[in-house]
Structure formats: C-alpha cells, structure tokens
Design goal:
By secondary structure, the protein is mostly helical. Helix content is about 60%, strand content about 10%. Strands 1-2 form a two-stranded antiparallel ribbon.
C-alpha cells in the first residue's frame, strides 16, 4: 500500500487528536492531575528511571518533573532509590500503591471506552479492535530512543 495522502493523514491525525481529548478526560478515580498520572504510568510500564530520562518521556522541564516526583513520593505512589550503576544518581520507581492507581485508572478507562463503543456498530467495533496490534507497534516506535527511519516491509 502506498503512503496515505496528506489529506488522509491530516484527517486521521485530527480524529486521533479528537478521540484522545475525550479519552484522556474520562473520569479519573485517583483524583490526580494528568502530569502526575503520566509519570506513574510511565514508571509502571517501563520500570525504574532516572529523573533525566523521565524528563525526555514526559516532555516537561526538570524542575517541574522533580516537583511532581516529590509530590508523588510524599503521596506514596513512587519512591527514589540509589542507582546501582551510579551511586551519585537515583532511580524513581512506582510503589505498590502507585501500581494500584495505574490499575484503577486502566479499569476506569476500560469502562469509559466500553461506554463510548456503544455508539459504534458491531463492524466498527471489530475494525477498531483489529487495529490494536498496529497501535501497540506504533506506540513502541514513537518512544524516545526508537529509530524512526526504519520502514516496515510487508512484501
């Protein structure tokens, strides 16, 4: 298949942006802000990280991220521990309580998504669910540090 036209890509991007705006605003049981939830989620998915690495993934400035981690640590959602590779640095990791927040958030979003999918036909739901593997692969490809110049060859 050829690369989609710019207008098709633009429409797809707009649809993703509009859907994401709805999806990220589904009710949040923990009552945490978006940035705090993002940090806990990232640590839950990727494991312990240095603040400098979190700055890249979260795309916020280091002082703001340090403050967010301080609050999350005070709330018992993350903890700092020495980095075994460099005693001068520390790693931030999610706690069991933080993992509970991530699970609760996920469960809440599954419920919200189920409600949204009631507005789709059976065929539309099947099409969306069939796209899961593609979205998972694109999510990995879009992470910082993953080369973006590799093209998929389906021939």
């Amino acid at each position: 298949m050829a690369v989609p036209s710019p207008s098709a890509l633009s429409r797809f991007a707009r649809a993703l942006e509009d859907f994401n705006a709805v999806f990220i605003r589904l009710p949040e049981p923990a009552g945490l802000g978006f940035s705090a939830l993002s940090v806990v989620h990232t640590l839950s998915r990727r494991g312990p990280m240095r603040i400098t690495d979190l700055v890249r993934t979260e795309q916020i400035k280091q002082p703001a991220l340090t403050s967010a981690v301080d609050r999350l640590e005070r709330d018992g959602l993350v903890r700092r521990r020495p980095d075994p590779a460099d005693g001068r640095a520390s790693l931030v990791e999610v706690t069991a309580t933080g993992q509970d927040v991530v699970r609760s958030r996920h469960d809440s979003r599954v419920d919200g998504l189920e409600g949204l999918l009631r507005h789709a036909t059976d065929e539309e739901r099947a099409t969306l669910l069939a796209a899961t593997a593609v979205l998972e692969r694109l999510a990995v490809a879009g992470r910082p540090g993953v080369p973006h110049d590799e093209e998929r060859d389906d021939d």
